[in-house]
Structures are given as structure tokens and as C-alpha cells.
Predict the 3D structure of the following.
Amino acid sequence: MAPSDFFSGLRRGVKAKLPPELRKFEVGRGHGRLTKLYYAHAEFHYEVWHHTGEGRLEIGLHFEGSTDANQRAFNYFRDRMVEVKAHLPRAELEPWDRGWSRLYETLPAPQLDEQVLAGAILRLDEYITTLQPMLLVFLA
């Protein structure tokens, strides 16, 4: 499956699966092998990224704002990892490139196909429905 077809199918599929109050996400800038979805704050976005060299698909919430905001988000979610892992048992929280952080997991994806797409829709739905209410509290 072409990456553009995969990611447009992912956006359509997750929008249909999400509860109505979470369907109005924005689509951020990405490149051919990733897509970003966010709600009002593009610096805190859900990202799905196909790591072709590793044959993995990353799904997670990325904190890519200021160094201070990223650290506060990291600390906030670190304090809630028991709750996060109750819903997302494979989720990992880690500092990342450029002072960013991410709360994510990877799935096997040697190629983008219908099976990987179906799994990605389910996982992204779980990430958004679990983490977005927490993120809203953090941002308040």
C-alpha cells in the first residue's frame, strides 16, 4: 500500500472510530512516512510514523513544544504512567531528540498493508481516547 493511501486511510478510520467529541482533530504537517493529528495545540500531537529501516510503525503522543513545556508534559505523564499503562500496557515515555519527549509504542510493520492499517487504527484510537482527556487537564 502506498504511504499516502495508508495515512489517509488511517485518518479516516480513526475519525470514524473515535467518540464524536474527539473527531474534530487537525492534521499537522508530516512527510511521506508519517502523519500528525492534534487538538488546538500542534506542539502536542499524536504521531504515526513508519520506520521503514526497522520495519516498525510508531504510534504515540509527541511533546514538541518549548523545552520547558515539553519537560512539564513529560513530568505530568510520568506521574500518571500507572494509569496510562492500565490502558496502554506497551506505552513507553522517554525524552527524545531536540529536547522533545514522546509517549509511544511500536508495532511490527515490515510493509504498509491492510492488516497494519487495521491495527494502527485501533491503537491510535486507544491512544487518543486514553491520553487526550489527560492532556486537556495538563493544558488547562
Q: What stands out?
A: The chain has one domain: 3-139.
